[in-house]
Predict the 3D structure of the following.
Amino acid sequence: MAADTLSRVFSALADPTRRSIVARLAEGDATVNQLAEPYQMTLQAVYKHLRVLEDAELVSRPRGPQPRPVHLEEKVFDVMDAWIESYRRRAEQRYRRLDSVLAAMNDTDDKDGAHHDQGHGDNHRG
Amino acid sequence: MTKAMETTIEADPKLPIIRMSRDFAARPEHVFRAHTDPALFAQWVGPNAMDTRIEYWDARTGGSWRFVSMREGVEYAFRGCFHEVRPDRIVQTFTFEGEPDGVALETLWFEDLGDGRTRLRTQSLVDSFEGRDAWLASGMETGVNEGYAKLDRMLADGAV
């Protein structure tokens, strides 16, 4: 997924109402009226949120004279995966830095010949 | 760096919890110390040591901590309490001061795998799914746009 698409998706999902609409649609298709029900909002306001979600290609809403249900695109689940994967990757980067710190600590131990337990971090003077 | 050491992550579907696990080629005392000694912690928590300033750090049961990260001239402050600190586990709170109402309850387990290896397991509990999603999304842009550049730089520096 291209970075600009992704940022559009994330700004679309940055709003709690839109996330809640997405959560509702994950249970199944719904009409705009059904979507508006739980909120103290005008239909117009709901349409505005839907337009943002449509622009991000997260939902689709067939146009026509009859009211058609709003449908959640599969892409949402890819985005959720990307979300979690990005978080994981940042943690992994942090832990790779920790690997280096730990390697240096091991080296120091080897040089000192200090293989006995030195006690715990809160007493450590370094 | 073997594949087997990579961080694993799980977002619980029923509770607003993020769980992670990672193995390290170091004894539990060292992994624990790298979390409790502020000088060591500052070396790995941020993109580089210069970018993280530890304001206070009292890694004892009932103690508290605060650090500030610099990113492109902007300061981001984080603080929390050490609820419980002992060799096999740390329980602490974690708050980004930009959103002081949001607080995560974090538990870290240091599990001795023998042969000088340690499994670190972490669990972060937040107060809502919305909070967790915002948490996961924080720094998302950075993750996408700058994450690889940062990793490349570290690889070049031999830090990884």
In short: Chain B touches chain A through 50 residues (CB under 8 Å). Residues 140-156 of chain B have pLDDT under 50 and may be disordered.
